[in-house]
Amino acid sequence: MSMLQGKTVWLTGASSGIGLALAEALAAKGARLILTARSKDTLNALAARLPGEHQVVPMDLMQPESALAQAQQLAASQPIHYLINNAGVSQRSLALETNFQVYRDLMEINYFSVVALTKGVLPHMVQQGHGHIVTVSSVAGKVGTKLRSGYAGAKFGVIGFMDSLRAEVADKNIRCTTICPGFIHTQVAHNALGADGNKRNQADPDNAGGISAEQCAKEIIIAIEKNKAEAVIGSGVSKLAPLLQRFFPGLVRRMVAKR
């Protein structure tokens, strides 16, 4: 029996990609899901086809102040055992050409929404005596590469936030897990923001050659159940990159500059 069975899991970015695969895998393990994304209709259709009974909470995480207020209300109305901060958007544009507003937007959804939802549920987790905060960062939060300066900056930031949070709540029975996916075969490149803030609508060979969203979800759940502080998920160079960065930073800098 999974430790997730019967537990309430709030999952953001649930309508596509890794989030959709996570929703399916978590429901199969008997978790009760709170599903969040922007489209209410998409979430309702997902909830209807998943086994079990699940709650739909549409939310625009590009508006973190509003998300904080919604999170506080939601956490006050019911116990939340797991929060999985999965929603996010990537980037494919050079720093020299990228509008400043794009950096702001990337920080709002990839960093500030994580802080907002975490702050919304954390006091209630502390009060109930247990809880688990899971945040999906990225290998780009360990190794910055071309065309991702805003995305990498936000993902580096969220790893730092989770590291500090983990230390602060270690004595309160609150667990914190940071997930760093590498290349995953999803629509992340299609949905990535370009220099003008519009979606790129184009595939990346790297992501297209990555592991499936279903395999990624499986490994995320293993990391959660094993209470790992951090897990790097992927294959090939994207999985090795953080290790190489740690021991051979000069080599990684040269590799990144040539790619």
Model description:
- The relative contact order is 0.14.
- With 259 residues, the protein is α/β, with parallel strands linked by helices.
- The protein is 49% helix and 15% strand.
Compact description:
By secondary structure, this protein is α/β, with parallel strands linked by helices. Helices cover 49% and strands 15% of the residues.
Note the topology:
Layout: E1 8-12, H1 17-28, E2 32-36, H2 40-49, E3 55-56, H3 64-77, E4 82-85, H4 100-128, E5 131-136, H5 149-168, E6 174-181, E7 184-185, H6 188-191, H7 205-208, E8 211-212, H8 213-225, E9 230-233, H9 236-247, H10 249-258
Parallel strand pairs: 1-2, 1-4, 2-3, 4-5, 5-6, 6-9, 7-8
Helix pairs in contact: 1-8, 3-4, 4-5, 9-10
Q: How confident is the prediction overall: mean pLDDT?
A: 96
Structural class by sheet pairing and helices: alpha/beta
Amount of helix = 40-55%
Q: Indicate the CATH topology.
A: Rossmann fold
CATH homolog superfamily: NAD(P)-binding Rossmann-like Domain
Count structural domains: 1
